Amino acid sequence: TVTAANSSSISDGAAALVLMRASEAEKRGLTPLARIVGHATQAQEPSKFATAPIGSIRKLCDKTGWSLADVDLFEINEAFAVVAMAAMRDLDLPHDKVNVNGGACALGHPIGASGARILVTLLAALANRGAKRGVASLCIGGGEATAMAVELMA
Questions:
Q1: Residue 90 and residue 95: Cα distance in Å, rounded?
Q2: Distance CA 142, CA 43 (A)
Q3: HSE-CB for 82 with a 13 A CA cutoff
Q4: Consecutive sets of 10 residues in the chain, 154 residues long: mean pLDDT of each?
């Protein structure tokens, strides 16, 4: 059930991320934080929007060759708490590996900046825990979702 009590607040936010080839970063003398290992999308009927990240994460693991156990942390954006809860249940993800800093219900849901917010939150959580591999997933409405696998470089 989706109610105001288990929904994220809409927050003000803006973000900018810089993505480039490793060769370009080296040419510019920059040290990348992470590398993108892969990405995947999922689309299904809109009434089942809350479970779309499950499909995108499964496709991502197939694409990267990672098992769910290979992933140190997951950041699953939830405009509604049920999105992360459904992924935890259906993928059998341990609570201590999902949204370890609270997710959107705790941190807010900056429309237009959610993808950047979850990626930066995930990268910081990986670094703070000495972990390496992470998956960020967004439920993007209308029954669609996307997921990205990242690996810290340092």
A1: 13
A2: 8
A3: 11
A4: 65 87 96 97 94 98 98 91 94 97 81 88 98 96 94 91
Does domain 4-152 fall under CATH 3.40.50.720? My reply is no
Q: Count CB atoms within 10 A of the CB of residue 119.
A: 22
The residues that bridge with 136 in the sheet, in sequence order, are: 75, 148
pLDDT in tens, 97-127: 999 998 887 887 777 788 899 999 999 999 9
CA distance 6 to 16: 28
Q: Where are the domains of the chain?
A: 4-152
> What sign for the dihedral angle of Cα 136, 140, 143, 146?
negative
Residues pairing with 30 in the sheet:
none
